[in-house]
């Protein structure tokens, strides 16, 4: 399995597939020309060293690091599965965000996806974005296999508090807006009687961040076990992103008994069951504040419903079953 970094959701795949296959994990960083050349050379050597035992090559993200594996797989008749995770599918000019902002990069992504054995998108929303931005022809090779979350903690409804939480890593202004953290802060300002928690702030220039109200606690990124403790104690989780391919943090929150609130026209909306969660058509502070209030009121009843729904529809068993069928 190849990825540009050890992202949590990537390591989830390494773990669950490792129970069925011998997984060789290769970090293929492409930042900088020297790094790109070095890692491409390392990959080619690694490929030839393992060529006889390779059953399939799985690449997370259809980007620079996916080109050499795609070419090598085609040359030597190996099965290659490309996982499209979001950035590699989208184009958002107003925030200069998405791989398809650059035309030549978009063409490379189209080539990679068109010449894979299978291209897996983490949501139907992501598949639609990929098709729109590459004009790739939908076929048997393009499939949707929803992402998953690995949550071992057990929540206790009786211990939950009236806390609304948002989990978004924000290193810069672009991400701050893409992840809709400004919306979350606006909600906290509108509901001073409710405790809000934002996890994922970084040590960046905070000049662009809206004034932090007294009822909002801002925390830097934390380890998973600490994050899960926060999620186990909160009642509502918000994913107010302007662009979102799936929403792993949202799913983790649901698995720990949070009522989810997410945006329409993002991958997050596919994770939420609106019988016990909310999908926002258009963000208006007053209307969303009402949703939050209702979610807090209904949390004792909806908590277990969200846990069961999340595990039934997005548990790791469903993802690994789909992956095994494709890998063979």
Describe this structure in words.
This protein has 328 residues and is an alpha/beta fold. 43% of the residues lie in helices and 16% in strands. The protein has eleven helices and twelve strands. The protein has a six-stranded parallel sheet with strand order 9-8-7-10-11-12, sandwiched between helices. The longest helix has 30 residues, at 285-314. The two termini are 15 Å apart.
Topology:
Blueprint: E1 2-3, H1 8-17, E2 26-27, H2 33-50, E3 56-60, H3 64-76, E4 79-84, H4 103-114, E5 118-121, H5 124-134, E6 142-144, E7 163-170, H6 173-178, H7 181-190, E8 195-201, E9 216-220, H8 224-233, E10 236-239, H9 248-255, E11 259-263, E12 278-280, H10 285-314, H11 316-327
Parallel strand pairs: 1-2, 3-4, 4-5, 5-6, 7-8, 7-10, 8-9, 10-11, 11-12
Helix pairs in contact: 2-3, 3-4, 7-10, 10-11
Brief account:
This protein is α/β, with parallel strands linked by helices. It is built from eleven helices and twelve strands. The strands form three sheets. It has a six-stranded parallel beta sheet, sandwiched between helices.
- Helix/strand-derived class? alpha/beta
Level of helix content? Answer: 40-55%
Average pLDDT taken over every residue: 91
Distance between the termini: 15 Å
Features:
single chain, 328 residues, alpha/beta, 6-stranded parallel sheet, 4-stranded parallel sheet, 11 helices
